Request: fold
Amino acid sequence: MDIQDLAQKVKDTALLEGDFILSSGRRSKYYLDKYRIETRPGILREVAIGLTTKIPPEANILAGPELGAIPLVTAVGLETGLPFLLVRKKAKDYGTKNVVEGQFEKGQKTVLIEDVLTTGTQAITAADSLCEIGLDVLKIVCVIDREEGAREAVEGAGYVFDPLITRTMMGL
Reply:
């Protein structure tokens, strides 16, 4: 798979132009709609295959934050055969009341899979939640790095950051 071809497909599928407020609160003239990628099996599969190249061999479990990364971590889990966890933004007030859903053992080597990162704040929060329950976060991978501070924030928090595609690769 040629990463530049994939970057162009992702751009063609996900790019919306206009006036948008991002989850970080920043204003942008473009928006990369992850759901346009994640709801189309053909491109989701290609992205998942690309993400599998970012999974180190010592990883034995994956994790994906709700809601946007759930289809991604599921697709990568199907591609790799690795089990995965779902990371909530906050615990529910009922049921198990867990922030992290799924079976795991303390000390497992985890890769957190994310969708689009701007500042990295939500990815760091999810990774911290994994560490708090005793998992070893090997790295945070994402489909798209908007190159607006996520790398610096993620690495500043002590995590390895490894994007599949960057804004520069898409010519934005």
Observations:
- The radius of gyration is 15 Å.
- The longest strand covers residues 136-145.
- The chain has six helices and eight strands.
